[in-house]
Design brief:
By secondary structure, the protein is mostly helical. It has three domains: 198 residues, MFS general substrate transporter like domains (Growth Hormone, Chain: A, Up-down Bundle); 55 residues; 209 residues, MFS general substrate transporter like domains (Growth Hormone, Chain: A, Up-down Bundle), CATH 1.20.1250. The protein is built from 21 helices and no strands. Helix 5 packs antiparallel against helix 6. The longest helix is centred in the middle third of the chain and has 31 residues. It is globular, with a radius of gyration of 21 Å. 53% of the residues are buried. The N terminus is likely disordered.
Length: 469
C-alpha cells in the first residue's frame, strides 16, 4: 500500500470517530439513566423495587454476556454491519421499552435493548483502530473515551429532567431521534471494513454466554440471596460453562475467542488492568452517593452535581493522555493513572463524618484525573497488541472487561461495606452522628479494597512487555 492509498484510507478518520461517538454515548446514558427513574417506574406499574431492579440488571447482563461474540462477529461480517445492526435494533427496542404495557414487558424489551447495545459496544474500538494510523491511535481512543464519560455524566441528570417534564417513558423514546441520526451518519461516513471469511463458533458462543451471565447474575444477587442453594447453583453453572468454553475454544478450528491472543503479555495484562480499574471505579461510583446522601444529608440533585466532577475530569484528561501515549508509549502513563486512582480511593477512605462538598469533589476529580490518564493508553495497548484480523475480538474483550468490571465492582463494594458496617444501619435512609460513624467505618474498608484493586492494575500496567514508542 503506497502513501497516497494510506492517506485516502485515513482521510475521513475524524468524521468516523465523531459518528461512532454519537452512537457510543447512548449505551452509557441508558446504563445510568434508568437508575434515577427506577422508583417512578416501580410506582407506575405498582411493583416492588426487587422486581423493578430487573429493568437495569437484565440490560447490563445481556450486554456483558455477548460482547465477546459480537467482537468475533465483527471480524467475520465486518465491523460496520455489526455496528449498524446494533444501532437499528437499539432504536427499535427503545421504542418498545417506551411503549411497554407492563413491567414484565419492559424487562423483556430491556433484554432486547441490551442485545442490540452489545453490538454497538462490541466493535467501536475495532472501527477506530482500523480508521486511524498507529501514531494517532491513542489520541483517537482518548477522544472516544469522552463519549463514555459524557454518557455516564449526562444520564442521571437527563433522566430526572426528562421524567419530570415528559414522564419516564420518554427516557427510552428520546433514543429514537438520536439513534436514527447516528445510524444515518455512520452509514454515510464509516468505510466498509470487510470481515475475514470464517464460521461462527456456536458452542463457544453458548458456553461463554452461560458462564458470563451466571457469574454476573451471581455477583449481582449474592448480597440479597447470601450463601444458598441458588447461589451455589449459579456458581457451579458458571464454573462448568467456563471450563467448557476453554475446552471448546482450544480445540475448534475457528474459535470465537482465539486463546493465542493471551500469549501476548501486553494484551493479557492490559485487559487485566482494565478489569481491575473498572472494578475500583464502580466501588467509587456505587458507594459515594450513599455517603453524600446518608452521612452528609445532601439532596439528590446536589449528589448528582458532586458526582459529575468525576466524569468531567475524565473528559478533560483522556484525549491528552491518549495523544501523549502515541509519543511516549503506554506503560508509564497507564501505571501513573491507575496509581492516581489508588491514591484517590485511599484519600476517600479518610473522609470524616463532617466533610464539606469541596472535600469530596477534589477527591472525585483526582480519581477522574487518574482514570483519564489510565484508560486511553491502556485501551491503546490492548488494541495495538492485537493482530489486525482479530481487532473485533480484541474490541469485544476490552468491552467485556469494562462491563464485567462494573458489575464486580458494585458487588465488591457492597460486600465489603456489609461485612464491616452493622446491617441495621444500612437499611436506614438517614443516619445520626454515631450511626454515621459506624457506616463510615465500613465505607472506609470498601474504599481501601478499591484502592488495592487499582493498585494491582498499576503493577500489571508496568510489568507488561516493552514497546516501541
Amino acid at each position: 500500500m503506497n502513501e497516497q492509498q494510506v492517506d485516502m484510507r485515513y482521510a475521513r478518520r475524524y468524521s468516523v470517530l465523531a459518528a461512532i461517538m454519537l452512537g457510543s454515548i447512548m449505551g452509557p446514558i441508558d446504563a445510568s439513566i434508568v437508575n434515577v427513574v427506577l422508583p417512578t417506574i416501580a410506582q407506575s406499574f405498582k411493583v416492588d423495587i426487587s422486581t423493578a431492579q430487573w429493568v437495569p440488571m437484565i440490560y447490563l447482563l445481556t450486554i456483558s454476556s455477548l460482547l465477546l461474540f459480537y467482537g468475533r462477529l465483527g471480524d467475520i461480517l465486518g465491523y460496520k454491519k455489526v455496528y449498524l445492526s446494533g444501532l437499528a435494533g437499539f432504536v427499535i427496542a427503545s421504542s418498545l421499552c417506551g411503549l411497554s404495557p407492563a413491567i414484565h414487558w419492559l424487562i423483556m424489551f430491556r433484554a432486547l435493548q441490551g442485545l442490540a447495545a452489545g453490538m454497538m459496544m462490541g466493535v467501536p474500538y475495532a472501527i477506530i483502530t482500523a480508521s486511524f494510523p498507529p501514531t494517532e491511535r491513542g489520541k483517537a481512543l482518548g477522544i472516544n473515551a469522552i463519549s463514555i464519560s459524557a454518557g455516564l455524566a449526562i444520564g442521571p441528570s437527563l433522566g430526572g429532567f426528562v421524567t419530570s417534564l415528559l414522564g419516564w417513558r420518554f427516557v427510552f423514546l428520546i433514543n429514537i431521534p438520536i439513534g436514527i441520526a447516528g445510524w444515518l451518519w455512520v452509514r454515510h461516513v464509516v468505510p466498509e471494513l470487510k470481515g475475514q471469511p470464517g464460521k461462527i463458533d456456536i458452542p463457544g458462543v453458548a458456553t461463554a454466554f452461560i458462564a458470563l451471565f451466571s457469574i454476573l447474575l451471581l455477583a449481582n444477587r449474592f448480597q440479597s440471596l447470601g450463601p444458598s442453594y441458588a447461589t451455589g447453583t449459579m456458581l457451579l453453572v458458571a464454573v462448568l460453562a467456563g471450563m467448557g468454553f476453554v475446552w471448546i475454544e482450544s480445540r475448534v478450528a475457528q474459535p470465537m475467542l482465539d486463546l493465542s491472543l493471551f500469549r501476548n503479555l501486553t494484551f493479557s495484562l492490559a485487559n487485566v488492568s482494565a478489569l481491575l480499574n473498572f472494578m475500583s471505579q464502580y466501588v467509587m461510583v456505587f458507594l459515594t452517593p450513599f455517603y453524600l446522601q446518608r452521612v452528609l444529608h445532601y439532596a439528590p440533585n446536589n449528589v448528582g452535581l458532586i458526582m459529575t466532577s468525576f466524569p468531567l475530569a475524565v473528559m478533560a484528561v483522556a484525549p491528552f493522555s491518549g495523544s501523549l501515549s502515541d509519543r511516549m508509549g503506554t506503560r508509564t502513563l497507564a501505571c501513573l493513572g491507575a496509581g492516581t486512582c489508588a491514591l484517590s480511593l485511599f484519600l476517600m477512605s479518610q473522609l470524616p463524618v463532617s466533610a464539606s462538598s469541596a472535600d469530596v469533589v477534589w477527591r472525585l476529580a483526582l480519581f477522574g484525573l487518574g482514570t483519564g490518564i489510565f484508560q486511553s493508553p491502556n485501551n491503546s495497548a490492548v488494541m495495538g497488541s492485537a493482530p489486525r484480523p482479530h481487532l473485533g475480538t480484541a474490541s469485544g474483550i476490552l468491552a467485556t472487561m469494562r462491563n464485567v468490571g462494573m458489575v464486580l465492582g458494585i458487588a465488591t463494594g457492597g460486600a465489603v461495606l456489609y461485612a464491616f458496617a452493622p446491617s441495621y444501619i444500612l437499611q436506614k435512609a438517614t443516619l445520626e452522628s454515631l450511626e454515621a460513624a459506624a457506616f463510615l467505618s465500613g465505607l472506609k474498608y470498601a474504599y481501601i479494597a478499591g484502592a488495592i484493586l487499582t493498585g494491582i492494575a498499576a503493577f500489571t500496567s508496568l510489568v507488561r512487555s516493552r514497546e516501541g514508542k
